Amino acid sequence: MLAIAHGLPFNDVADVSLGCAQGIGRGTVRQLCQAGARLVIADLNDAKGQDVVESLEKFGQEQRHVTYMHVDVSSYDSVLALFKSALDLHGRVDMAIHCAGITEIGGWFAPGTDIASVTTPPTTKVLEVNLFGSLYFTHVAVAAMGHNRAAQSSDNKSITLVSSIAGFKESPGLFTYSASKHGIVGLMRSSRAYLHSTRNVRINVICPWATDTQMIGGVRDIWTQNSLPMNDPDDVARIILQCAVDATIHGKAVYVADGKGFDIEEGLDRSEPDWLGEKQARDLAKGQAALGTVSDSDTSLACIISNGPSVQGSAWTGNKGSQ
Question: InterPro entries per the record (predicted)?
C-alpha cells in the first residue's frame, strides 16, 4: 500500500504507504482515511486495490481523495513512479508506510540426492519483494521527503516498515522469508542514526506475531488448538499509525502480540550486559559510538557502519516491554 495522507495529527501531512489490498495494509489504509487522511494507495493486485477504494467510498470516505496506483515493489522504477506521482498530487511526502510482502516459496532446501539436483538456482522472489522492496521504498522515500522541505510547515517525517516475528526469532522452514524479514530489521538499525542526524527522518519497524490474515492460513488450526494469541489486523495498523505519527518514536523494532506493542530495542539494550557480558557490552558500546560518525559515502573499513544510539521514544498505545 502506498498512501499520501493529510489529517489525524495528519493536518497538512502527506503519507505514503505500500501494500493496501488486504490484511494489515488494508486496515492501515482504513484507519488513515478515518483519521482524515488524504491517500494515495498502491498494490500489485489491482482488483483488491480497487475494492479497498470502493469500500472506503461505501462508508462515506470518498471526500478523502483516495487515489489507487498499480505498483510492483520489487521494481525500482515502479516504486520511483509511485513517489513521483505522490509529489505531483500533493507536493510533499511526510510519512511512508511499507506493508507489502509475500511468504515463503519452497525449493531452497528440498531433498536432493547429489549435486545434479541443484543445477538450477532457486527463486529469489521473496527477497526481491520483501527485502529489496523495502530497500527501494526507503531509498526513494528519503529523497521524496526532502522535496521542497524548507517551504513546509511540518517537519515530522517518518518511514515505517513491516517485518515479522521471523525478523528476530527462529522460524523453521521459512528460509528466505526469515532472511528477508531479518534484513528489514537490519535496514532500520543500520539507517536510524544516519537518517535522523542527516535527514531528520524517523524510521521504525513493526514485527507482528501471528495476525489474522491470509498469510497465516497454514498454521491457523495450530494456533486455535493451542489457544495462542492472535493479532487483529486493525490492532497492528493502530500501532503502525502510532509509530508513523508520534515524533518521539524513532529507531524502534516493535513486536506486536495479542494487539499490544513491545519495544524490542529497549529490552535488548537494557539486558545486553547480561547476555553478552559487561566488558564486552562496554567495549561494543565504545566501538559503536566511534563508528556512529561514519558518513554514507565512507568506503573505508569503518563502513561496517554502526547503527549508533537510537532516539528513545515514549510508549505507544498498548504495553511497552521487552522481548
Answer: NAD(P)-bd_dom_sf, SDR_fam
